[in-house]
């Protein structure tokens, strides 16, 4: 049965993907949760989803002479979860830096100066999508980060990272000016 499903996956037949999700999802979820579970359920679910996508995309790397298909999936799971863990740790570091930056230069305080405001708007308008949209929604429309993430079907961490990079660009512009 498994060999038949592997062939289906290689032909990009969705039934093969359904089979591996139904067969391996609980073990994949368990492994991912062991590695990054303390970061939250949303991150675990996103990683599990990415594992199955990665297996789907890299199915041609599977060689049954080198081991079982389950080992192939579990190795993909392990390495992807470790990548997520590194990214999440980096994001945590960025959030701490963000607090430090906000203590140094308050965007709201500088925005009171009209010239600065015009320059800030130019910098914001130069942002690529979806950064510009996220920034406007957060700081001009007062959306919550979770609402932005839900609306654009992404993670909270992704929105936070993009907003952080936007604020850094504004800070750099302001530092050059002053």
How much of the sequence lies in strands comes to under 5%
Distance between the termini: 68 Å
Here the CATH topology of the largest domain equals Rna Polymerase Sigma Factor, Chain: A
Main beta sheet, described? none
Q: Which percent range fits the helix content?
A: over 70%
Mean pLDDT: 81
Order of helices and strands: HHHHHHHHH
Instruction: Return the structural class.
Output: mainly alpha
Bulk shape: elongated
Report the radius of gyration as a whole number of Å. Answer: 21 Å
Assigned CATH class of the largest domain: Mainly Alpha
Q: How many domains make up the coordinates?
A: 2
Uncertain segments of ≥5 residues (pLDDT<50)?
none
CATH superfamily of the largest domain: RNA polymerase sigma factor, region 2, helix turn helix motif
CATH-defined architecture of the largest domain: Orthogonal Bundle
**Which oligomeric state applies?**
single chain
What's the helix count?
9
């Amino acid at each position: 049965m498994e060999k038949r499903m592997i062939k289906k996956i290689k032909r990009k037949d969705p039934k093969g993907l359904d089979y591996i999700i139904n067969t391996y999802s609980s073990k994949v979820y368990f492994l991912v949760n062991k590695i990054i579970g303390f970061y939250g359920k949303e991150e675990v679910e996103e990683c599990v989803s990415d594992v199955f996508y990665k297996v789907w995309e890299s199915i041609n790397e599977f060689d049954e002479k080198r081991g079982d298909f389950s080992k192939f999936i579990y190795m993909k799971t392990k390495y992807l979860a470790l990548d997520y863990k590194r990214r999440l740790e980096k994001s945590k570091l960025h959030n701490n830096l963000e607090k430090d930056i906000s203590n140094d230069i308050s965007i709201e305080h500088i925005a009171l100066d009209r010239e600065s405001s015009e320059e800030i708007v130019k910098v914001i308008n130069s942002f690529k999508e979806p950064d510009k949209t996220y920034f406007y929604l957060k700081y001009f429309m007062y959306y919550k980060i979770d609402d932005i993430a839900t609306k654009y079907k992404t993670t909270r961490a992704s929105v936070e990272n993009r907003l952080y990079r936007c604020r850094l660009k504004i800070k750099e512009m302001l530092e050059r000016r002053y």
